[in-house]
C-alpha cells in the first residue's frame, strides 16, 4: 500500500492531477497495487478556505505520506495579496518544510513532437538531459528580503544565500545522477560576477574529485541560456542555483514544444518526495478541459520509479505517453495545423488505453 | 570633431574593435567628419600591465570623451584571480563609475541569416525588439557580496539591491523608447517570489500612467525565457533587472543565429555612453582573425546615432551590414554548409566597400 498525498492547487492544477490519479489507478489495477489517495489544500484555494497558502494540516498529511503529487498554484485573484498570503508562498513553504532540496527536471525529445517545437529538428533531435535545480536556498529564500529606507530613500533588497553544505549536497546529487547517465555534469553559475557562484564553482571542483568517472564542465548562466537553444544535445546533467534553474528549465521546455510536457520530482533529504509538472496553474484555460495532462502523468511515472521503486510500472507509463504521441494525439498546446485536438480527459483516456 | 575612447580589452576584443574603428574611419572619409581615437587599457591586459582591471587613466580618458567603444574582457589566464583582480571587474567598474544605467540590446531578425538560427524561420521572421537591461544595480552590485560564517558553518551571500529611484529611471527610459517604437513595454520580473520584483512591478504601473499611449505588460522571468524562444515577435521593448537582462539577452541572440551579431549601447545619466558587442572575449578563437566583427560594427552604428546624432551615417552602416549578409558573406559563426567563409578583416573590408 502506497499513501499518496494529492495537492491539486489552483487553475488547471485540478484537472491535471485528476488525470494523473486516474493513470495511477490504472497502474494499480493492472499490477495489483494499492494506492491510497488523500487530498490536501494548497495555494489560492487554501487561502480562501483556511486563510493560509499552506495549512498545517496539509503539511502534516504530506509528511505522513509516501509521496506527494502537486498540481499548480496561483491565479490573478490573489496577485495583489500581501506576500505571506500569496499562493506561491504555499509552494515555497512546502518545499522548504519538507526539505525538498533537489528538483529534477528531465528534458526529453519526442520525435513525434518535433513539429511543435520552435527549434529546428536537427537542433533538438536526440536531446536528453536533466536539469537539477537547487530548490530550498539561493535567491528564493535568502534573508533579508524586504523594503527599507536607505539614506532617506526607498529601497528594496533580496538575498542570495547558501551554506557551503547546501551547495555540496546538490552538486553531489547531480554527480550521482550523472554516474547513472552519460557521465557529464554542467555546473551553471555566474562566477565572473557573484561571490556565491565562485563558492559554487569551488565546491563543484571538490565534489568532482570524488567522481573521477564523471566529467565536470562549468558554464556561465548567460552562456547556458544560449547553449540550451543552440545545441541542447551537449548536455547530460545540468546543476544550478534555484533562480537560474527556474529560468533555464522553462526555457528548456521549448525543446518539447510545450511547458505542458515537462515533469519534475523534488527529492527530500529525509522524507517523502514531491512530484509536480513544471507548468503553472494557467488561469486563462482553467476549467475548460483543455490543459495538457502529460507533464503530470510523466511526474507520476517519476514517482513510481523514484519513490516506490516500481521501475516496470514507470516504464509502462512513459511508453504509453510516447505511444499516444506517436499515434498523433495532441492537446491544443502541442497541436499543429491538421491535428485532431483532444481534451484533457480524452488525452488521459488515451494514455490509460495504452497502459 | 568627435573624441572616441577605444578600450579594446582582451581576446577577440582587439580584432573586433579594430574592425569597427576602420568602419568609423570610412564614415569619416565619406562624410568629412573627424573622429579622434584614444586608446585605454581595461580587463586582463590592464591587470597585467597596470595591476588593476580599470586604471584611473582609462576612466579619466573615457569621461573626457564623447563616446566609448569597448571590445570585450576576460580570459582563462585571469580566471583564478581574486575578485578585485578579475577582468570582468573592470567592466563592472566602468559601468558603475560612468553611471551607465541603461543597457540597450536590440535584437533584429536578418532574413539572410534565418538558416543560421536554431529557431524555425516562421518563429523568428520579422522579430524586432529591444532588451533594456538595468546595468548599474541589482544582483551585480548589491552589498554584502561575501563569504561568512553562519552558526559555525561556511556560507556565502550576494545581494539584489535597488533604490526605487533606480527602478523608476530604467523603466521610464524603456517607456520613452517604446513611444518611438511599437508602443509596448514588457516588464520582466519574478514578482511571485522576490520583494524587489514586487517593487519593480509597482513602479512599472506608476510609470505607465505617464505614458497612456504605451501598453504595459508584466511577465515572469521564467515565462519570458520561454516566450523569447516560443514567439519572439510579441515583444517590442523588454525592460528588466541586471542579471535577468544578462541571461535573456544572450538567449535572444540565438534569433540571429549568433552572439556575434548583437550590438549594445550603455547610456549614462550624465556623461558619455559606451558601446560594446554583447559577446565576450572568446579566448578560444582569439588572434585567429576568425571573430565576427558585425556586433561591434553595429555598436558603432548605435554610437553614430545615439551619441553623435548622425542618423544618416548610422543608417548607412546598418544597411551596409545587411547588404553584405544578403550578398552571402559570412564569418564562421554564422556560416552554413556551402557558404564561403570570410575572416574578420575580410568581413570588415566587405562592409567598408558597401559604405
Ligand atoms: C510558482 C513559482 C513560485 C515556481 C518557482 O518559481 O519555483 C514555479 O515557477 C516553478 O518553477 O515551480
Ligand atoms: C563579462 C560579464 C561580466 C558581462 C555581464 O555579465 O554583464 C557580460 O556577460 C555582458 O553581458 O556584458
TrEMBL record, chains A, B:
Subcellular localization(s) per the UniProt record: Cytoplasm
UniProt KW Transmembrane helix keyword: no
Binding site for Mg(2+): 222, 246, 250
GO cellular component labels: cytosol
E.C. number(s) listed in UniProt: 1.1.1.85
Residues bound to substrate: 95, 105, 133, 222
Catalytic activity: (2R,3S)-3-isopropylmalate + NAD(+) = 4-methyl-2-oxopentanoate + CO2 + NADH
Site feature: Important for catalysis: 140, 190
Isopropylmalate dehydrogenase-like domain sequence ranges: 3-351
UniProt KW keywords: Amino-acid biosynthesis, Branched-chain amino acid biosynthesis, Cytoplasm, Leucine biosynthesis, Magnesium, Manganese, Metal-binding, NAD, Oxidoreductase
Family annotation (InterPro entries): IsoCit/isopropylmalate_DH_CS (IPR019818), IsoPropMal-DH-like_dom (IPR024084), Isopropylmalate_DH (IPR004429)
GO BP annotations, alphabetical order: L-leucine biosynthetic process
Cofactor note: Binds 1 Mg(2+) or Mn(2+) ion per subunit.
UniProt GO molecular function: 3-isopropylmalate dehydrogenase activity; magnesium ion binding; NAD binding
Names of required cofactors: Mg(2+); Mn(2+)
Protein residues bound to NAD(+): 75-88, 280-292
Pfam families: Iso_dh
Pathway membership: Amino-acid biosynthesis; L-leucine biosynthesis; L-leucine from 3-methyl-2-oxobutanoate: step 3/4
PANTHER family: 3-ISOPROPYLMALATE DEHYDROGENASE
Subunit structure: Homodimer.
Family: Belongs to the isocitrate and isopropylmalate dehydrogenases family. LeuB type 1 subfamily.
Function comment: Catalyzes the oxidation of 3-carboxy-2-hydroxy-4-methylpentanoate (3-isopropylmalate) to 3-carboxy-4-methyl-2-oxopentanoate. The product decarboxylates to 4-methyl-2 oxopentanoate.
Name of the featured protein: 3-isopropylmalate dehydrogenase
Provenance organism: Anoxybacillus tengchongensis
Taxonomic lineage from the root: Bacteria, Bacillati, Bacillota, Bacilli, Bacillales
